[in-house]
Each structure stands twice: as structure tokens, then as C-alpha cells.
Design brief:
41% of the residues lie in helices and 17% in strands. By secondary structure, the protein is of the alpha/beta class. The strands form three sheets. It has a seven-stranded parallel sheet. A four-stranded parallel sheet has the order 1-2-3-4, with helices on one face. Strands 5-6 form a two-stranded antiparallel ribbon. β1, α2 and β2 form a beta-alpha-beta unit. α1 packs across α2. The longest helix has 17 residues.
């Protein structure tokens, strides 16, 4: 999936982090610069890059006190940090943690993901089949998009869907699209349901639930949402990317496990995003957003404003590197 892009001439998985792999891969690629993102610390690759004097950067880094770098036994991990020429981190606390162990080659630049999701707004996000599904005659039905859902999310969501009004449309894009799990999900839903793989020669407007059993189109589908539920929040490490619906000005509902994600924590605190822990709270959140348009628009506005206010990390990084 990731190979089908126009960003680079070659897109590959990075081979396992061994000394021999690192030497061979870097010899083949002979990069002028290397960039690692967020939590990616590959000690053997980092050491080989350092040995060959190849400039290496951490982008959108985020650090916490409980990481090994900041423990008494963390010498090996701290040595890996010494291989970076510069750290671009998401927040002041990450900068302060790095400075506390002697790294001053650090700058708060923010998270480059904001720039990516802002750029989504500039492209054509229309999908003909989505226009058909969300419409009833010339009227657009209120639409809830459920993205990257897991079974723990779906058990609550299915209960809500089955007792909901026929005036509401639901789109579910599960994290796992294995046919047996898709069929199990479809069988649990009592509303009229259609799969993406079955959409041809079907009048989508007659269905209440649309299950997306393919990948690569969820971001565009979020543009049709009035409300979004982003899955993963009942598992570890936690909720999936909430910025994609947020950039479209859509209020977001998530599960309880989001504390490792700065953007989710911020949006919950700002009340653009609602975190739920059980069936009752999910029902209340959806009912509030469905029946109170002012509340829905206000939370959506908070989300889109938050994304716009946090863009610019990419340009900050590029300006520093080019200087």
C-alpha cells in the first residue's frame, strides 16, 4: 500500500535493526540525510549513520519521563540519542527532558501530521458512491463515520446503530478488513447494511449502514461525516488518528485510552473531542451531537481551528535544515 505514492522514487520497509543490515542498507542507499519520526529509535542504524557522518534528524519527537532514556539504567538508550544531529520535538516538555540529560540541539517545531491533514483540504475528496449513500432524494442524511474500529469499539457501536433512527446513516471502516470479521460485523447489525465490495448495482441510498471493506479511502470518507468516531481507544497503545476527521471540522468521539496522544488529549480538554468509557456514555455523546446542532457545530469548529493553529512544523524544520 505504502509503495503506491509519488513522494519518493523508492519506498521500502526498513530491514530489521541489526549491525549487518544497517551497514548493508546504508551502503546501498548512501543517504545525504536521514530522518526518524516520533518514536523511532533504531540503535544500529543510528550508530552506522553516525559512523559515516550522515546527518540524522528526529522529526516530531515526543518524549516522556517514563522512557528508558531518563532512567538510571538507560545509558545504552541515551547513547542512541547522541547519534542525532538535531531534535525537532512536538512540545516544551520533550525539549526540557532532552535538555535535562545534556542535549541542547533541540527545537520545538510541533507535529508535521498537522501539515499533512491541512493539505487534505486542498484536494478533491469527493466520492460518487458516498454521495449516493448519504443522500435521500436531494436531502443529505446526518452521517456518522466510524474509522479504524476494533471489536471492542464495534460491540458498543453496533448496539447504538441497531436502536438508532433510520434518518441517520452510518459508515464503518474497520481497522481489520478480513472477510470473516467483516461478515461477523455485518451479521450483528440489524439495519440494512451494504459492503463496499458489494456496492455496484445496489441502490446505496436505501441502506442505513455502509461497511468499507477496503483500505486507502477513509480520509476522503471523513469529509462526508457530521460526526466521527475514531477507534482504538479501548486497546493499547490507544486511539487512532483523530486529526483526519478534525481537519474537516467534524466533532470526534473516542474511547478512554488516549493519554499517549498529545492531539487527542488537547482536543478532549478543549471539548472538541468526547472520550467515552462505556455504552451509556457513547449513547449520550452520539445523542447530544445528533440532536443538538449548535453543540455539533461548535465542537467541529474547535477541531478545525485546533488543526489550523498547529500547522507549520514542516516549514520550520525545512528552514532550519536548509540554513
Amino acid at each position: 500500500v505504502r509503495k503506491n505514492n509519488t513522494v519518493a522514487d523508492v519506498t521500502v520497509y526498513l530491514p530489521l535493526d541489526t549491525i549487518s543490515n544497517a551497514k548493508q542498507f546504508i551502503k546501498l542507499v548512501h543517504p545525504e540525510m536521514a530522518f526518524f519520526i516520533k518514536y523511532e529509535y533504531w540503535p544500529n542504524y543510528l550508530n552506522e549513520l553516525k559512523n559515516q557522518n550522515i546527518k540524522t534528524y528526529l522529526i516530531s519527537g515526543i518524549l516522556r519521563e517514563n522512557q528508558a532514556f531518563f532512567k538510571w539504567y538507560g545509558g545504552f538508550y541515551r547513547n542512541a540519542l547522541k547519534t542525532f544531529d538535531y531534535f525537532f520535538v512536538q512540545n516544551e516538555s520533550s525539549k526540557n527532558l532532552l535538555q535535562s540529560i545534556g542535549f541542547n540541539n533541540v527545537r520545538v517545531s510541533g507535529d508535521t501530521r498537522f501539515d499533512r491533514v491541512v493539505s487534505i483540504l486542498e484536494r478533491d475528496n469527493s466520492l460518487d458512491f458516498m454521495d449516493s449513500f448519504t443522500s435521500f432524494g436531494k436531502t443529505k442524511r446526518t452521517t456518522i463515520v466510524i474509522g479504524s474500529s476494533w471489536p471492542k469499539d464495534e460491540s458498543l457501536l453496533v448496539n447504538y446503530i441497531n436502536q438508532s433512527s433510520d434518518d441517520v446513516k452510518f459508515i464503518i471502516a474497520p481497522h481489520n478488513i478480513k472477510s470473516e470479521q467483516i461478515q461477523e460485523l455485518k451479521n450483528a447489525i440489524t439495519k440494512k447494511t451494504v459492503l463496499f465490495s458489494e456496492k455496484n448495482n445496489v441502490d446505496l441510498s436505501n441502506s442505513n449502514v455502509f461497511i468499507i471493506d477496503t483500505i486507502g479511502i477513509l480520509t476522503k470518507i471523513y469529509s462526508y461525516a457530521d460526526i466521527a468516531y475514531v477507534g482504538g481507544g479501548f486497546g493499547n497503545p490507544g486511539v487512532h488518528n483523530i486529526l483526519e476527521p478534525a481537519t474537516f471540522g467534524v466533532p470526534v468521539v473516542i474511547g478512554p485510552n488516549y493519554s499517549h496522544f498529545a492531539e487527542a488529549t488537547a482536543l478532549v480538554n478543549m471539548e472538541g473531542c468526547i472520550s467515552i468509557q462505556n455504552q451509556t456514555q457513547l449513547n449520550e455523546a452520539f445523542d447530544l451531537l445528533l440532536h443538538n446542532e449548535d453543540e455539533r457545530l461548535e465542537k467541529g469548529h474547535i477541531c478545525s481551528t485546533f488543526v489550523q493553529m498547529n500547522k507549520g512544523a514542516t516549514q520550520t524544520i525545512i528552514n532550519h535544515i536548509l540554513d
